[in-house]
Inverse folding.
């Protein structure tokens, strides 16, 4: 009989600042005890981190309901799920090529035949105007912002099924709709084959960039009341920013955005 290190393996994927950590926290809230490893970032000709590098984060929401974590060198079998995060920086969506081998090696090293019984690949997409605004707010108009349109287009095409790059089974998350619509969140829980919970909905995870934690705009101000933030209105601050507007002028980006999110804002 095949043995598994974990029953459920969930990947949360998206371009940086697309809202995947909000989705991640919400997913964590469905469980009592999970392990998470972040930063599995594929690069153009090499890989950044994989399972053999860095630490695991252990969330035990039964003991620590504030969604704080313990840092661990290794994962163990005493968990309900293992969650792996991928943050893209380039307009390509391939998974880290080291991942499959390292999953198998980790499971075998712990006496199991396979890493997981069930997998899900959760891909998060945010409206481009709010996504780019959040990126600029926290990191400025850097290399990612200058290629934002091409990155977002590659994500939107995968979201709409125009490409088929990511592994299956895929769970596509419209971040804007997820934030506003409980029924939509229930449908996502169903796709993930887990009982619905909004336990993590109002939590802002203390993770960030150069000691800037949480939301690009609000930081940790709303750490336990995330639903009071206004993530669908971030574009307003940049509606006259020339570099922001240049990215938003991309015809293909606008077409895909309107197909997914409806009418483009009055930029």
């Amino acid at each position: 009989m095949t043995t598994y290190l974990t029953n459920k393996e969930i990947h949360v994927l998206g371009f940086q600042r697309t809202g995947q950590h909000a989705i991640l926290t919400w997913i964590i809230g469905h469980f009592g005890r999970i392990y998470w490893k972040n930063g599995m970032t594929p690069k153009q000709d090499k890989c950044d981190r994989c399972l053999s590098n860095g630490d695991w984060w252990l969330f035990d929401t039964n003991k620590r309901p504030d969604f704080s974590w313990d840092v661990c060198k290794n994962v163990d079998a005493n968990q309900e799920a293992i969650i792996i995060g991928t943050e893209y920086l380039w307009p390509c969506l391939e998974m880290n090529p080291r991942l499959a081998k390292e999953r198998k090696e980790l499971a075998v090293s712990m006496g199991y035949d396979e890493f997981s019984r069930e997998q899900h690949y959760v891909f998060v997409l945010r409206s481009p105007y709010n996504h780019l605004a959040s990126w600029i707010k926290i990191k400025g108009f850097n290399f990612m912002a200058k290629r934002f349109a091409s990155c977002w287009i590659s994500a939107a095409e995968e979201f709409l099924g125009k490409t088929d790059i990511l592994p299956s089974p895929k769970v596509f998350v419209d971040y804007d709709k997820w934030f506003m619509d409980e029924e939509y969140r229930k449908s996502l829980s169903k796709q993930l084959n887990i009982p619905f919970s909004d336990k993590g909905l109002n939590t802002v995870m203390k993770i960030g960039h150069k000691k800037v934690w949480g939301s690009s705009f609000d930081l940790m101000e709303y750490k336990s009341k995330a639903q009071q933030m206004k993530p669908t209105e971030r574009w307003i601050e940049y509606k006259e920013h020339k570099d922001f507007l240049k990215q938003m002028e991309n015809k293909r980006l606008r077409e895909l955005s309107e197909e997914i999110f409806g009418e483009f804002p009055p930029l």
